[in-house]
Amino acid sequence: MIDSLDEYKAKRYPELEEEFFRGSFADWNDRFDEISLFLQRRLRSAVVEAARRQDEVMVPCSNISISLPLVSVGLGKPVLLVDFYDEAWFYGRPFYRYRIPADVFLSRWQEFICRAEDDAFYQRRTLRKTMIRTLYAATLEQFAFQLACEMKVWLADMDMDELLKGLTVKVPFYLSMGTYYDGQKPVYAILPSEDLLTVDESDLSLQHFERKIYRQHVLKRKNLQLSRFTDCLFEPATLQKLDLRDAIFQGCRFHYVDFSKVKIAGSCWRNCVFEDCTFDRISADTTMDGEFYAAPLLENCVFRDVHIERSDLRGCVLIDCMDDGIDFSRCQLDDSGWLDFGR
After folding, report:
1. pLDDT tens for residues 41-70?
2. CB neighbours (10 Å) of residue 201?
């Protein structure tokens, strides 16, 4: 029997926490379309109401912060707060606030609590339920961060121009997700436009590149996290040591492209074509650099004469993709949709 909080944290809590995360993420994947539609509709309603309020207060919007107040989970009524801020961004004082019921994201929370507080595994004389409950905040903070990672995927096919229609925004503009009064992870941004080819700046995260052509170019050592590429053409090109974590590629074509040492955790690729491409030492590691990312998602993509080698692609999710000639060499493909390819 466990008789101290330290022993409980070492022997029982990590396993329960991991099962809670794994089960929650599996539920999210199983209910992907339902959650995506629910979230998009609620956010659109939030923006409509915020625009009405904006007409009264006459301020532009520079930030939309989506947060999970931990106290709401503790009270058994979890909500997401959607706060709209002006450019002063005085935290806790949005010019408009909208609430989204969050039960759909926390379907496993009550089960987790019951298992965590099951006194069949510890001595009630020396370990109280109130002591165990002190561990929940850290679990929920990690949960909220993962929720932010997934939110980017749920909103990937949403027309952001349509979402923000009617709302007066001021650049730079950010949509972020996290815990209330704590860390926020950017999900979307509108920033001053940059040229990927000419700018010397290595950090180009959260940028949007649309209908660009990258021909005979070598792109390397760029941080492109959370950037969006729409209807772009890479032909031919070399992409080397790029950080594409949480990046979104929509309707892009890659022809004779060499990918080398590229990080793709959390990235989303929809309706893309890869033809005569090589991938070498690609990493889909979702826990890289002490942060957590969703598994890469590839949907309605075509792979034609593609070679992938020495890459860690574990956990990648593939939906309705076409294998028109793909082979692997010395790759890690566990728990991924790649297992049905190149065989």
Report:
1. 999 999 999 999 999 999 999 999 999 888
2. 8
Q: State pLDDT tens for residues 6-18.
A: 888 888 999 999 9
Pull the structure tokens for residue 292. 């957590």
Taking CB atoms within 8 Å and a gap of at least 24, the contacts of 42-45 are 42/82, 42/98, 42/100, 43/82, 43/100, 43/155, 43/163, 44/163, 45/98
Mapped onto helix, strand or coil, the DSSP state of residue 176 is strand
pLDDT in tens, 175-193: 988 776 666 778 888 887 7
Angstrom distance (rounded) from CA 127 to CA 307: 56
Q: How far apart are CA 36 and CA 25, in angstroms?
A: 14
Residues 241-294: tens digit of each pLDDT = 999 998 999 999 999 999 999 999 989 999 999 999 999 999 998 876 667 777
Tokens of 52: 């009405």
The end-to-end CA distance of the chain, in Å, is 49
- How far apart are the C-alpha atoms of 63 and 175, rounded to whole Å? 6
Pair of tokens at residue 258? 């060499």
CB-based contact 234:252 (threshold 8 Å): yes
**SS3 for 204?**
coil
Q: How far apart are CA 292 and CA 71, in angstroms?
A: 23
What gap in Å lies between CA 32 and CA 150, rounded to an integer? 10
| Alpha helices (H) along the chain | 5-11, 13-30, 32-57, 70-74, 109-116, 129-132, 136-154, 160-163
Q: Give the CA distances from residue 113 to residues 73, 82, 87, 107, 150, in Å, rounded to whole numbers and listed in that order.
A: 11, 26, 40, 12, 23
Do 230 and 209 contact (CB within 8 A), yes or no? yes
- The length of the chain in residues reads 343
Whole-angstrom Cα distance, residue 122 to residue 54?
A: 54
Q: Tell me how crowded residue 309 is: count the other CB atoms within 10 A of its CB.
A: 14
